[in-house]
Amino acid sequence: MLLEGKKAIITGGTRGIGYAIAARFIEEGAAVTVFGSRQETADAAVEKLLASYPDAKVWGRTCDLSSLDAVTEAFAAAAEDMGGVDTIVNNAGISQSTPLLDYTADEW
């Protein structure tokens, strides 16, 4: 297993590409914390992952990813759950009509 003993945080990990990444990391032996926009979606993703991978070490969390304080607190809690963090997959996304190159630093 390529990721045996590794610990990963995956933002946007409750569905779509992020969920697929979480599943693959688990298949490869990683402990995973998925972050979603709502605790209900995070809990549902954990339940689904555990149904597919009963021995998985997986947690679900939420936080306001636009707040540095909230991210710091939530990532510290995830690190405590997993016993550390080896990698973060920043997959969270938002939908805005602003073209990428027109974003201001504050919007980013």
Jot down its keywords:
single chain, 108 residues, alpha/beta, Rossmann fold, 4 strands, 19% strand, globular, Bile acid 7-dehydroxylase 1/3, NAD(P)-bd_dom_sf, oxidoreductase
CATH class: Alpha Beta
| Overall form | globular
Low-confidence stretches: none
- Mean pLDDT over all positions: 92
Radius of gyration of CA atoms, rounded to a whole number: 14 Å
Q: CATH homologous superfamily name?
A: NAD(P)-binding Rossmann-like Domain
With helices defined by DSSP (H or I, 4 residues minimum), what is the helix count? 3
Multimerization status: single chain
Strands in their spatial order, largest beta sheet = 3-2-1-4
- CATH fold category name: Rossmann fold
